[in-house]
Design goal:
Layout lengths: L2 H8 L3 H12 L3 H13 L5 H23 L10 H11 L1
Length: 91
């Protein structure tokens, strides 16, 4: 994603940002909320910074997984999403 495009996405209203994540990464609102809360709990209280990190995570992990499996949406087993978030955070 181009930085300029990413900046415009980061500034979308909440509902449109969630819709963007659904359309581009196949996330339902529940999965999005888990990701958003996880980053919030990592002390990313600023919405813009948190959304940037969310997009980075989605581009690094979710998009790559979708392409690898040729799926429209990633399915997470029990605990897998948190494991992916933790792995991303360590990088």
């Amino acid at each position: 994603m181009i930085v300029k495009e990413q900046q415009s996405v980061v500034h979308l209203p909440d509902l449109l940002f969630v819709k963007y994540c659904k359309e581009n990464f196949g996330l339902n609102k529940g999965v999005y909320n888990v990701i958003d809360e996880w980053f919030y709990n990592k002390n990313l209280k600023n919405v813009e910074i948190r959304r940037q990190k969310i997009l980075e995570f989605l581009l690094c992990f979710i998009d790559a997984m979708n392409k690898e499996s040729n799926m429209q949406r990633v399915r997470f087993g029990k605990g897998e999403l948190i494991n992916y978030l933790t792995e991303y955070w360590k990088q």
